[in-house]
Design a protein that fits this description.
Blueprint: H1 23-27, E1 36-41, H2 60-64, E2 70-73, H3 75-78, H4 83-91, E3 98-101, H5 105-110, H6 118-128, E4 138-141, H7 151-160, E5 167-170, H8 175-178, H9 180-192, E6 196-197, E7 199-201, E8 217-224, H10 229-246, E9 251-258, H11 264-279
Parallel strand pairs: 1-2, 1-9, 2-3, 4-5, 5-6, 7-8, 8-9
Helix pairs in contact: 10-11
Length: 297
């Protein structure tokens, strides 16, 4: 994942910004007292996660899904898979595993939420719902140059989204979050429609660290810099998530990316171990005590 990559991460101030003033209010509206936690990588293919799979692994997803409890499914951005493929993914993963698929690029980057996007969305969901109870939260990632001048498209899309399928959205144009009037309108739209506001933590884009939750789901896409600071940044996230959990957060969806993806499982294992210690979760630590695999630092 090259988005927000920098040549000198040691020069970046990675301090997590303070929460938006309305985040706590949002969390405390309907606290359930229970938090579901899903942590994973963006991909499961062996070519990216070098050193993660034991020699002789024949089915990468089957192995991956027994190490992690979720996957951020980026493959669906590039291709709308047929229903049968989603059924196969469903059937070969454990009962508690969940997929978090990205909406196809025709929706976000080609049609850019135009009025004629509905048939594409319908076709996508017709296939994706075959994940059944393992469908976590679909997410929409807009292009860097998709700006607030097209806010009306966002309104139509969000209000027309089927409410029974959880949705999270990610905007990358700086004005969505740094023009105060636009940002507040966006937050109110997402909150009114129970849509999650994705937080992207990336070295080169600190301008979009809005820290505004719009429902009880924290959907975080964490991008490491292949630098020692990656671990201390994760420590800070554990602290913030614990605070949110203590104040009513119901869903943690945290996905670890790296510019060199092979290190993602190591970071994820470190993060999961910290979550278990601080939040009282009992998530499996990937590849713990597995001979010949990458080891947790």
């Amino acid at each position: 994942m090259k988005f927000g990559s920098v040549d000198h991460p040691e020069e970046i101030d990675f301090t997590l910004p303070k929460d938006h003033t309305d985040t706590l209010k949002t969390l405390q509206k309907n606290p359930s007292g229970h938090t579901q936690v899903f942590v994973g990588c963006a991909k499961w293919n062996k070519a990216d996660l070098k050193g993660f799979y034991p020699r002789g692994t024949k089915d990468e997803l089957e192995y991956y899904s027994r190490q992690f409890n979720s996957i951020e499914l980026n493959a669906t951005f590039y291709r709308i898979f047929p229903p049968e493929q989603f059924e196969k993914w469903h059937d070969k993963t454990p009962a508690d595993f969940k997929f978090f698929p990205k909406l196809n690029q025709e929706v976000s980057h080609w049609k850019r939420l135009n009025d004629d996007v509905a048939p594409v969305v319908d076709n996508y969901l017709y296939s994706a719902v075959n994940l059944k109870e393992k469908l976590g939260c679909v997410f929409l990632q807009m292009h860097n140059n998709f700006a607030p001048k097209d806010f009306d498209r966002v309104i139509n899309f969000v209000e027309g989204w089927p409410k029974e399928i959880p949705l999270a959205v990610e905007f990358r144009h700086t004005d969505w979050y740094n023009d105060k009037a636009i940002a507040e309108d966006l937050y109110q739209l997402l909150e009114a429609n129970n849509v999650s506001n994705i937080i992207v933590d990336s070295a080169g884009r600190r301008d979009i660290m809005h820290m505004r939750l719009t429902n009880s789901r924290a959907f975080v896409r964490y991008v490491g810099a292949n630098h020692a600071s990656d671990y201390t940044r994760l420590d800070d996230w554990v602290e913030r998530l614990k605070y949110w959990k203590d104040n009513g957060l119901e869903h943690i969806n945290f996905f670890v990316h790296q510019n060199i993806e092979k290190e993602s499982p190591l970071l994820s294992a470190y993060f999961i171990k910290k979550l278990n210690a601080e939040l009282g979760t009992d998530l499996k630590i990937p590849n713990e005590d597995t001979d010949g695999q990458q080891k947790l630092l």
